[in-house]
Amino acid sequence: MKRVIISLIAVCIAATALAQHPQQHKQQPPQGPATMKAAPQQPKFQADPQAKKPALKKVYDENIDPLKQIYQAVSQAKREGKYVICQLGGNWCPWCLKFADFITKDREISKLLRQNFVYIHVNYNPKQARSKDKSTVDKAKKLLKRLNYAGRFGYPVFVVLDGKGHVIHIQDSSFLEEGESYDRSKVLRFFKNWTPEATTKL
After folding, report:
1. By residue range, what is the domain housing residue 78?
2. Which residues sit opposite 118 in a β-bridge?
3. What is the tally of structural domains in the chain?
4. Are 156 and 173 in contact (CB under 8 A)?
5. What is the pLDDT of residues 104-145, one digit of tens each?
6. 21 lies in a domain?
């Protein structure tokens, strides 16, 4: 009888302990590389396709007389033994501003221009020739005639004048383009072939 009572007490004690600490008897899942969650990857930076590019500098002075501008450039070129390059176009023309930016940022091209040319941006808008104002139309016609109607090649267009102001070359800018910009080797070739030295070389 005493053994029965002792056995019942032992069973009660074991049952009480199990009820108080059930988590100790649960099997823990194995921990290892197969069960560990990977840390979330940080998203890679992507450029915003809608982000605006810096605006190009406007290089055409719309408030000066282009014929007077050309005359003054020729006078300077004659004194300095240089030629004149007229970049005909306007601030309305993205490719005109692209070219101005392109040659300004290239040291070799900039140096070549300084040494051999008086480089001017001659403002012209084709709308001027279709204006209802007669004086505006007359000025546009005089400018185009002065530059041998170079606008027929599109804009920008480059007109090379010698020291006497004669038009010696008109350069179609489409032959200098490359993708969304200009081809450096073609631009250099154009300028080098029309320096005073190159055009007088035997």
Report:
1. 66-200
2. 84
3. 1
4. yes
5. 999 999 999 999 999 999 999 999 999 999 999 999 999 999
6. no
**144 located within any domain:** yes
Q: How many CB atoms lie within 10 A of CB 165?
A: 15
> Residue 123 in contact with residue 66, Cβ under 8 Å?
yes
| CB neighbour burial string for 58-91, b if at least 16 within 10 angstroms, e if fewer | ebbeeeeebeebbeebbeebbeeebbbbbbbbbb
Evaluated on CA atoms 181, 184, 186, 189, the torsion sign reads positive
What are the DSSP calls for 62-75, one per residue?
Answer: TTS-HHHHHHHHHH
**How would you classify the pairing of strands 181-182 and 167-172?**
unpaired
Rounded mean pLDDT of 12-16? 51
Locate 57 and state its tokens: 């500098």
Residue 4 covered by a domain = no
How far apart are the C-alpha atoms of 35 and 48, rounded to whole Å? Answer: 37
Beta carbons within 10 angstroms of residue 162's beta carbon: 19
CATH classification of the domain holding 109: 3.40.30.10
Residue closest to 67 by CA, chosen among 129, 138, 137, 122: 122
Considering the domain boundaries, does residue 184 fall inside one? yes
